[in-house]
Amino acid sequence: MEKLELLYEGKAKRVYTTSDQDKYIVSYKDSATAFNGEKKGEIAGKGEVNNIMSNRICQLLEKSGIKTHFIQELNERETLVKAVSIVPLEVIIRNVAAGSFSKRFGVAEGTVLKQPTLEFCLKDDALGDPMINTSQVLALDIATPRELEKIAYIATRVNEILSEYFNTIGVKLIDFKIEVGRLNGDIILADEISPDTCRFWDKATGKKLDKDRFRQNLGEVEEVYQEMLNRVTRH
Ligand code: UDP
Question: Which atom of ligand 1 is nearest to the CA of 197?
């Protein structure tokens, strides 16, 4: 399968059309941004880590009955995926307080939540991806009630499956963001699941193994991306 036209270029990926209108090629970049694009940089090797890791995770989720966009890894940076229409929501699940949650609610980072939270942000860079509640999602016709139910189910299952999986490789899944897309009347998991979109803390030491090292200038950024890839590909 060959790349035809560049359909979309985002902060971390390019999406290309192919000769099959039902399939796209996603190409992962090393560019990194944080704080709604205010901080920019490069993380050497990130494209490969995020591509390979996302693909492994999609395969794991598929085995547990979660439908994903994954079709085939083409090379270290590129993957063939099902062409979906992305629902413009960032779907966030949290197990432990961190990042914007800690800031917004004044809860110390690391506080274990009594139950996982589910939140939505509207995917709109110009507006800074504002938080949006389910009533607003329905009022703005961003998703139907049935779709919202499916999205909540997918997010919850992904959290259960991945929390257990990462635990086996010595990693605590603190929080993560997923995106979903519409395909033939169904909702499936799309986009990536990687150190760019999850918070991972080492189970033994609490060391941050994700994009927070870039956001907070903690150093060893490339190293922890490689470390996560190593752990995922070893298991
Ligand atoms: N996240 C993401 N993309 C975004 C915003 C958040 O992938 O545009 C992920 C982030 O990596 C974290 C989770 O969603 O794992 C929750 O992020 P949070 O709301 O705390 O935002 P942040 O602190 O990144 O601004």
Answer: 7
